[in-house]
Write a structure and sequence with these properties.
This protein has about 190 residues and is α+β, with helices and mostly antiparallel strands. The protein contains three helices and ten strands; from the N terminus they run E-H-E-E-E-E-E-E-E-H-H-E-E.
Length: about 190
């Protein structure tokens, strides 16, 4: 089932999400719905807070970037209770977008390498290191479960310049081709 994605300004996006246990109600269905929702919105990652669930869960399928970045050819993973334990290197700036902030892309600086611990969909533990583009995608989705949006990483001046556009997004004054919940309207729109 395709779930509505919450837009910028929704309070769930600002909460630090909670760890979950294997008996979390409907977890496998939620993961399935998140994949379906992400693909319908043409995303490469989706975090549970973006579908109004304040839990430490995100999914990533970076394989569409496999031509450009061969290490992403088969990169499709579920991250549960993820915690980045280390970020390394000199920050690299790249353009980022977000399904919760449609129509905007901004340059964001992030460390190029990380170490992350997480559980997969079967609750098997993993500790892995990533670099480059996949590290950036993980950091972006990880920010969501920590209540951080990429626009929070912009300079105060840049945020001020985007203020009206962000207000338009939160109030639903945008065209989007996927289901969303706009906090300024407190209704769904497709």
């Amino acid at each position: 089932m395709i779930l509505p994605i919450v837009a910028y300004g929704h309070p769930t996006l600002k909460k630090v999400a909670e760890d979950i246990t294997p008996d979390y109600p409907g977890l496998q269905q939620l993961i399935s719905d998140m994949w379906e929702t992400m693909y319908a919105a043409h995303g490469v990652g989706l975090a549970a807070p973006q579908v109004n669930k304040s839990i430490r869960l995100f999914v990533i399928d970076a394989s569409p970037y496999g031509e450009e970045h061969p290490e992403l050819k088969d990169f499709k993973k579920v991250f549960i209770n993820a915690h980045i334990t280390d970020e390394r290197g000199e920050e690299v700036t790249m353009s980022e977008g977000c399904l919760s902030i449609p129509g905007l892309n901004e340059d964001v600086s992030r460390k190029p390498s990380l170490t992350i611990t997480y559980l997969d969909e079967n609750f098997n533990p993993h500790t892995e290191e990533y670099s480059g583009f996949v590290a950036r995608v993980i950091q972006h989705e990880y920010d969501h479960i920590d209540g951080v949006l990429y626009v929070d990483r912009l300079s105060a001046m840049r945020k001020l310049l985007l203020k009206n556009k962000l207000k338009d997004i939160s109030e639903g004054r945008i065209d989007v081709d996927y289901k969303m919940i706009f906090p300024g309207l407190y209704k769904r729109r497709k």
